[in-house]
Specification:
By secondary structure, the protein is α/β, with parallel strands linked by helices. It contains 10 helices and 13 strands. The strands form 2 sheets. It has a 7-stranded mixed sheet. A 6-stranded antiparallel sheet has the order 5-4-3-2-1-13.
């Protein structure tokens, strides 16, 4: 582009659609390996700080991850008001459990991630994200297949947060966006509990995948609502889905939420408060229309396969 000054020689290009690429300039590679499950990079970028990249798809960056993780974690905990036991599926950076631990009522957080190499690399290279959350005595870390654990556990939880990498063709998360998986989550959810799922991008070219995930969740849970938040390092806003057998308050009162957060958490938020929560829970019309018209339910026989991976290139 005329007049542009490029300041990086290494780029990670994430394929968003067959016609669109989102690119971050990389200034340093901190870690790289092909694990049993996926290719991992931890890098320093020019604009978004350190970032975790799995199979060429950006998972989070230190500059803006607070938006994603606060939007993912706190809506269901606010709805519950007194969470004690939380299950986190995925979340290798440790930022998801970091946010859960802000709640004073928390007695135990169980985190299950299939890829121990990624977790160990994040512990070493992304302290800004986990902020020593892994060392908190309330945290129980399991390196395991979530499906196997869910099939055998007798534990139950107040909140379940599914923070998994996208179900791309080469990745390990195919089965974890299906009706069978969500049914397993419902079995281990306490009465009055909530499930929160990272549910893909919501840009108009990609909204069908989000709508199909929401429709799949509606086949399992009595109440499901779509939320979204701006996620600049992803190149577009991101969707979430909150689920419960209890009614979900779609228009929470900002003042009440602020009082709850002040009384029951340690604070320190940068994105979530009463006004922000009210905003992200107002599902835009085009997303509501996409959900209303969707009939697909993802199953193990027909799982989702989101588009894209990415590639590292020199320029």
């Amino acid at each position: 582009m005329s007049g542009s000054e490029l300041k990086a020689d290494l780029w990670i290009n994430e394929y968003i659609t067959p016609w669109d690429i989102y690119t971050h300039g990389v200034t340093k590679i901190l870690a790289h390996c092909q694990t049993q499950y996926q290719e991992m990079y931890i890098v320093e970028t020019g604009a978004f700080g350190k970032g975790l990249v799995l199979d060429g798809k950006w998972q989070s960056c230190t500059v803006d991850e607070f938006i994603y993780h606060e939007a993912l974690v706190h809506p269901p905990l606010i709805a519950h008001q007194n969470p004690k036991r939380v299950l986190v599926l995925g979340g290798g950076e440790g930022a998801t459990i970091r946010e859960v631990l802000r709640w004073k009522s928390i007695e135990e957080v169980t985190m299950i991630d299939i890829d121990g190499e990624v977790v160990e690399a994040c512990k070493q290279h992304l302290p800004e994200m986990h902020q020593d959350a892994f060392a908190d005595p309330r945290v129980k870390l399991m390196i395991a297949d979530a499906l196997e654990v869910l099939d055998t556990t007798t534990d139950t939880w107040d909140i379940i947060i599914s923070d998994l990498s996208d179900p791309i063709k080469s990745g390990p998360s195919f089965a974890l966006f299906t009706k069978e998986y969500f049914t397993k989550l419902k079995r281990v959810l306490n009465p009055g509990g909530y499930v929160m799922v990272q549910a893909g991008p919501i840009s108009p070219p990609e909204v069908k995948d989000h709508a199909r995930l929401v429709n799949t969740l509606k086949a399992v849970f009595g109440n499901v609502t779509s939320l979204s938040a701006p996620t600049p390092s992803y190149g577009r806003a991101w969707g979430f889905a909150m689920c419960s057998e209890s009614a979900i308050a779609l228009q929470p009162q900002p003042e009440s939420v602020d009082r709850l957060l002040q009384a029951k958490t340690t604070g320190g938020y940068r994105f979530i408060d009463g006004i922000s929560l009210l905003g992200i829970m107002q599902t835009p019309l085009y997303i509501r229309q996409a959900i209303a018209s969707e009939t697909t339910v993802y199953t193990l026989n027909e799982p989702p396969k989101f588009f894209g991976t990415g590639v590292v290139s020199e320029q």
